[in-house]
Design goal:
Elements: H1 11-45, H2 49-77, H3 79-98, H4 103-131, H5 135-166, H6 171-174, H7 176-190, H8 204-225, H9 231-253, H10 267-297, H11 302-308, H12 310-330, H13 332-350, H14 360-387, H15 393-430, H16 437-445, H17 447-454, H18 459-498
Helix pairs in contact: 1-4, 1-5, 1-7, 2-3, 2-4, 2-8, 2-15, 3-4, 3-7, 4-15, 5-12, 5-14, 8-9, 8-15, 10-14, 10-15, 10-18, 12-13, 12-14, 13-14, 13-18, 14-15, 15-16, 15-18, 16-17, 17-18
Amino acid sequence: MPTHVPARATRRQWLGLGLLTLPLFVLAIDTSVLFLAAPHIEADLDPTPAQWLWAMDVYGFAIAGLLVTMGSIGDRIGRRRLLLIGSAAFAAASLWAALASDPLALIAARAALGAAGASLMPSTLALIRTMFRDERQRTTAVAVWMTTFSVGVALGPLVGGALLEAFRWGAVFLVAVPIMAVAVLLGPFLLPESRSPSSARIDAAGVVLSIAAVLCLVYGLKALVSPGPEAVDAAVLAGGVVLGAVFVRRQRVVASPLVDPALFRSRTLRSALALLVVGVFTVTAVNFLVPQFLQSAAGMSPLRAGLLTAPIALAAIIGSLAAPALASRRGASAVVTGGAALSLVGYLILTGADPAGPLWPLVTGGALAVLGLSPTTVLTTDLVVPSAPEERTGAAAALSETGGELGVALGIAVMGSLANAVYRLRVDDLLPDGLAAGTAASAREGIGAAHEAAEGLPPEAAEAVASAARTAFATAFSTVGWVCAVLTVGLAAVALAGLRPERPEHAGRG
């Protein structure tokens, strides 16, 4: 029997890929630049603590909560159409944020940005699947697409810093407007339209359940890692789990589900999603804690700490771009397993980081950990999206993106909680005797609070408190490194067992 050979992408498809990277590049810059502009925004708008927390978090909440819904909408109305609508909406919301004159306007604009952003990510991934039929070319396209996000995160502070030097803080949001305008203008010429032939109505109850479940999960995880979590935060998290279970149950019986349960019959898809969540989870621990270590424990300025983390960002770019060539030679399972072994070495190096010693173990360990796990995010994404029938591509892409969002939320919440718990236990043993109760209580809150409390003490006592805090933080950091090392071993085991090729007669049965 003749074997069907997928058509290879032409120049038009590669130009279209370049266009598809623009929305992701904007999302990456928008994610990283806000933290740089934060002091300027606070000084100008003077938000309350609650308002500022919502201004920072509502963007991520909206993206996470709407990904599944937007993926399903794109399958029905057309992925290119949704991408163009989302790009125009993102530009309009960026202009809204730039001109915000009070905290509530900024919160609303950030929520609109998140909703628009949720329409962009599954649409771009689904269109990549449509445009690149050749397996190796598709993997390369996914790698280029994901690398764009790393480049955007790295360039965001540089672009934002230059704009803040010359203009009002709103200028950092205006970067998105011309870029999205290019996507809207050229999209109809370079991007194909694709949609599901089904005209079934969207399950409104499923939409509400999916949004509520993800929002409760992400909010609960964020709240539990913040100082002084309350019982209501745990209740919200538990509610998210319950709503998620109800959503899954509904998808099994509704005529037109948002996420077809049949997708999960594939062992490869289940394994790829699990690997994606765990891989992002562990990498988030590096991205979250290494900058804290450099600034709080090693006492570096933000600029110098940022320069020292540049090799970690570079490692992410190299790992992502190398994934397609490695996978074509060795297979996804071997590449993910080998990358996990490299990351294991990195995490073991990180366990020995010492704020009083040389910093090369911290930078080297972080770079190796990210270098090894970067191919995992590329290859698992490339496995998830094509695993679904073409009419469900948007939903599959949304599953991949939701897995990444949950990996980030879990990484910050779980590893942040673990680090805080170990820090408190260790610092109690290290604080000098005779400290005032208030000073000791402040030192137990975290290394930043400990340094602030030490400022009002005599030099000898201040150094004792600061030293205790640094040592306790190093212990907490080392503990996180050990946990990540164990998880990486588990990741390698899942890759070996779950990513091996499925026999055609069993594919889809799991």
